[in-house]
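Problem 12. The chain below contains 183 residues. Write out its predicted structure in token notation.
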Amino acid sequence: MTQDKIEIHLSINEKHNLFLDYFFSFWTHLGNGLFTFAAVVIIGLFAFKTYRYSTFALGISTLVLAGALSQLLKRVVFDDALRPKELIGAEKLYFVPGIDVHSLLSFPSGHTAAGFAFMGFVACLFFSKNKFAQLLLAITAVLIGYSRMYLSQHFLEDVVAGAILGILSFSIAFFVKGTFQKK
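Solution.
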């Protein structure tokens, strides 16, 4: 299994160009916890008149759950999971200039979890009937995950687990919100 994830990562790592280096250096920040939190607060302020506190509650609970679960898994359950730089070796990888590449706490990808959780929140809140917008948000989330591999921060399995974690976190928060609204 380890050899497969290394081969997959190396095949992704060999496909670099200047445009993609810049693009993914920016795009990866869309999954940053501080960015997603700030975006939820801004969305909550704009939606306050219509939805009151429920937008804040859903958005923040989604991100807190995604962040807490990913950090618990990273730091307690899979604390020995190495990132590409450490497992493959820096000499075998291309690194995008200016990116601080980490070595430890690889599984799962927190950026991917936050990205999928946040895009699910936005899709549900604003685009529940707009399939095209939902598709664009899904592509945005997938590209956040891909950026983590492109930048050699994570392996494919880290990103897939982060995506599942993000979707699960939003689903749980949405379910809980719906349960409380019925009461």
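Discussion. DSSP finds eight helices and no strands in the chain. Students who got a different answer should revisit the alignment rule from Section 12.3.
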